[in-house]
Amino acid sequence: MSESSTRDFYDELARDYHLIFRDWDASMAHQAKVLDGLLHPRLGPGPHRILDCSCGIGTQAIGLALAGHEVFGSDLSPLATTRAAAEAAARGARLPAVAADMRQLPFGSSSFDVVLCADNSLPHLLSAQDVQEALVGMRRVLRDDGLLVISLRDYDDARRARPATTPPQVSETPDGKVINFQLWHWHEDGERYDLEHFQLTPARSTWDVRVRRTTYWALNRQQLTGFVAEAGFTDITWHTADSSGYYQPVLTARRPSPPH
Fold this sequence. Notes:
It is built from eight helices and eleven strands. It is an alpha/beta fold. It folds into two domains: 3-153 and 219-254, Vaccinia Virus protein VP39 (Rossmann fold, 3-Layer(aba) Sandwich), CATH 3.40.50; 157-217, Single Sheet (N-terminal domain of TfIIb), CATH 2.20.25. It has a seven-stranded mixed β-sheet with strand order 3-2-1-4-5-11-10, with helices on both faces. Helix 2 (24-43) packs across helix 3.
């Protein structure tokens, strides 16, 4: 992963990220409800101490904080974490957030009940070494029997189909409609792709077009399951969108307690 290019992508997107959603606050509430539904049967009702290590502007973290959990955020983008903390405060929630690489989490060992890495963030890491380094770090900051939660695109299907684009998403704003779509440029290995994110916003009699670029590794479930197991997690479970209600497949796994 090029740390600077990925950070630049999210720094540039931080101001406008909410425009990806038709209703950002409604999405926050819905995602928090679904994620809470994954935590409750595995950890009890809580509240839980949660690290969102790819918090972005706070889509998952704010919703979970408003649901009563003690949430901390980190993200590669300092502009995104600054906005996340401010948006949380504006809604009456507390979200301490710091800029940090998920491969080098600046938190003490066994600090959290849950580590969340959502919104297809882990696939920005483009090598097995980087993915393994991140997962080992997430395991370190989890308490014994703590829960890892990762969401990412359904790459099993995507790697077979190799889509070149995503359907346009249209959201309403006070200034008019905003259109988002992506172009995917697949590498020769069939696993990685360069993404161009287009965002069109109304500007008088024309459109303001913003293009941001980044790269992903389209990790399939078998690959990610193997990496998570190698990092020392157990009880690895996949939750499909149909079963969980979340908009992406979700993996949950536990940091095992040491043998007595």
